[in-house]
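Suppose you are handed a protein chain with no further information: no name, no annotation, nothing but its sequence. What can you learn? This example shows the usual starting point.
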Amino acid sequence: MSAARTVLVTGAAGQVGSEATVLFEQAGWTVVGHAHGSLDITNRADVLEAVAAASPDWIVNLAAWNAVDLAETEEEAAFAVNAMAVRHLAEAGDRVGARLCHVSTDYVFDGTKDGAYVEWDRTNPQSAYGRSKAAGEVEVPDDGMVVRTSWVCGQHGGNVVKTVLKLAEDPDRTLAFVTDQVGCPTMAADLASYLVRLVDEGHRGTFHVTNSGPVSWYEFVQEILAAGGHSRDRVRPIVTAEMDPPRPAPRPANSVLDHRALRLSGLPEPRDFREALADLAAQLRPA
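A reasonable first move is to predict its three-dimensional structure. Written in structure tokens, the prediction is:
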């Protein structure tokens, strides 16, 4: 392992970025972190300047437009962040000899497959957000890496784990979540650890990284409640058609991502989401 390696991380203050910057530093990397306020990744000149100044070995792009429903009416803005900005980062990386690791999403699939999606399955996004993320994948150079993930939750930022645990503090509150959308929850710290390992080992190509254990949103919320010391009965099952108000962007019914590329690379399967969720719930518990 060489002594002088630098990684530039965009979205460094986000759910995954906050974890990844710490883990990269622990792994011996020099980290140049850029949060939303310090670098506008949609501005080509700014990106070229920032990457040239850092002269990193790797760029890890964790910045994204994640407002799934808003993207339906602001698709061009979503493409600016999720696709064109990836082009800028790829160009900037090419100029200094840096490789690019870009984080993508389960929304690039249409959710109709009978079984888990593998890395080589054809993408067919059904939402503006999904189309923008699929376009971003195309912008990653051949020597780069795309890491798809789903249902990310962590200590930092807003997510369903924090929301459910907060709502559960009201003893009279009953939650409702859907049973007809199935996927794999991913704890941000676990995703970050895999990103560091994949970059550290110099991998290329597409990988799926989620915690193991597919569940519906309803089942996931049951597990969140249990992890927080609440009754699983605090949530009731509904189907997507019953959501009030309905969501503007279509969600893939099947978001389960298989880890075939990890297995074929000799890398371990990510741990079960329940184990990772228990760690996160403990971290979020008031002292």
